[in-house]
Each structure stands twice: as structure tokens, then as C-alpha cells.
């Protein structure tokens, strides 16, 4: 895949961004909104340092391939524009070939808030339409708490979200956040999870 990481220095409207996944963790989105509020006069500098990576798809629309949570938080906060960083220009592909290409490259996550795969048509057309998956928020928080290490490959947090999905209920996360997070960190570091991406628990081999 062609790789062009030069930023597009002209701001683009957030509402023009297209997602490449179905869900985000709204708990994480809320945390990002709080941090945005705390930036005060440093917001412009922050935006310059946090460009949204995209691929340019059919009709030259920008499709977000990372930082969905940031984009959603900024839109919810009323920010109108962002800087984008195109990493590939795929606007010559037909829509069908475009979605298949992203899927084959691991740049697409068409799974719903229950962890079930959906057709490409289920992916929202707007960042504001991303649905809540509390397990994705839990997975992100476990990584930040040192439960596992960050990896370069995309969507590792969703893999962990599915791992936690078998251990907890959504209402555990929404109503008993701190207690559930503490338990999830312990689970992530157990040897039973040694096959998971970024695992950094005790090696018993």
C-alpha cells in the first residue's frame, strides 16, 4: 500500500470524516472530552500535534483509520475542523474493492457492540454515529493501567474487549467501573491470557 504521511495542513470539517469501525467506548470518549476542556489556550497546539490518520477513499472522502475516540470527542465538544494525515490514496477503487482492500489490510473493524461481525454497510457514515461498546472502553483503560502493552497493529484493544466480554457484563462496566477495571487488569496479566496481543504478565514457561 502506498504510504504518504505528509499532513494535510488545510483543516477539514470533522463531519466529513468517515469511520472504519462501528463502535467506540464512550467512557473513553468522555475522558478525552474532559482533557480537551482542560487544555484551555493550548487547544490549537494540541490539534497540530494530533492529526487524524486517514485513507482517501471513493469520492475523495477521508476515512479515519485511527483516533476514532479523539475525533468523536472533538466533535462532541463542538470542534469544527481537524488536521488529517493521509497515509494512502485509494480514491480510484470502487466502493466494493475499497472496503475489501481495507479489510484485507487490517484497516477495518466491522464488528458491533456485541463483538459480532456485520456487513460493511453497517459501518456508520459519520463519526457522531459511532455506537458505544463499553468493553472497548474497558480494554483501553486496562492498557493504560499497565495490564498489557501497546502494539503497533490496529484494533488490539478490540481483541482485548472480546476477551473481557466473556468475563464481565456491560452493566458491570457502566455501574462499577473502578472495581471492574481492577479485576480486568488482574485478568489481563494472568498466564491464561499469554496468547493475547501485548500480554506482559508472568511467564510460567
Summarize the structure.
The chain is an alpha/beta fold and 205 residues long.
Question: What is the topology?
Answer:
Elements: E1 8-13, E2 23-24, H1 26-39, H2 43-49, E3 52-56, E4 62-64, H3 68-76, E5 81-89, H4 95-104, E6 131-132, H5 134-144, H6 156-165, H7 170-175, H8 177-189
Helix pairs in contact: 1-3, 1-5, 5-6, 5-8
Task: Walk me through the structure.
This protein has about 200 residues and is an alpha/beta fold. It has two domains: about 10-130, Alpha-Beta Complex (Conserved hypothetical protein from pyrococcus furiosus pfu- 392566-001, ParB domain); about 135-195, Ubiquitin-associated (UBA) domain (Helicase, Ruva Protein, domain 3, Orthogonal Bundle). About 40% of the residues lie in helices and about 15% in strands. The protein is built from eight helices and six strands; from the N terminus they run E-E-H-H-E-E-H-E-H-E-H-H-H-H. The protein has helices spanning about 25-40, 45-50, 70-75, 95-105, 135-145, 155-165, 170-175, 175-190; strands spanning about 10-15, 25, 50-55, 60-65, 80-90, 130. Strands 1-5-3-4 form a four-stranded mixed β-sheet. The longest helix has 14 residues, at about 25-40. The relative contact order is 0.17. The model has no long low-confidence stretch (mean pLDDT about 95).
Amino acid at each position: 500500500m502506498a504510504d504518504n504521511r505528509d499532513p494535510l495542513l488545510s483543516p477539514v470539517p470533522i463531519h466529513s470524516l468517515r469511520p472504519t469501525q462501528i463502535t467506540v467506548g464512550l467512557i473513553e470518549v468522555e475522558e478525552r472530552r474532559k482533557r480537551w476542556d482542560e487544555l484551555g489556550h493550548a487547544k490549537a497546539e494540541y490539534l497540530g500535534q494530533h492529526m487524524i490518520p486517514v485513507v482517501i477513499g471513493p469520492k475523495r472522502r477521508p476515512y479515519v483509520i485511527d483516533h476514532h475516540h479523539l475525533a468523536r470527542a472533538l466533535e462532541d465538544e463542538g470542534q469544527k475542523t481537524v488536521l488529517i494525515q493521509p497515509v494512502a490514496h485509494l480514491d480510484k477503487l470502487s466502493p466494493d474493492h475499497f472496503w475489501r482492500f481495507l479489510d484485507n489490510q487490517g484497516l477495518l473493524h466491522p464488528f458491533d457492540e456485541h463483538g459480532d461481525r456485520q456487513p460493511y454497510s453497517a459501518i456508520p457514515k459519520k463519526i457522531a454515529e459511532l455506537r458505544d461498546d463499553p468493553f472497548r472502553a474497558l480494554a483501553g483503560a486496562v492498557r493504560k493501567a499497565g495490564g498489557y502493552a501497546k502494539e503497533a497493529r490496529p484494533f488490539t484493544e478490540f481483541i482485548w474487549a472480546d476477551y473481557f466480554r466473556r468475563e464481565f457484563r456491560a452493566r458491570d462496566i457502566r455501574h462499577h467501573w473502578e472495581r471492574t477495571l481492577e479485576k480486568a487488569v488482574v485478568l489481563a496479566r494472568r498466564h491464561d491470557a499469554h496468547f493475547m496481543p501485548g500480554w506482559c504478565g508472568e511467564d510460567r514457561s
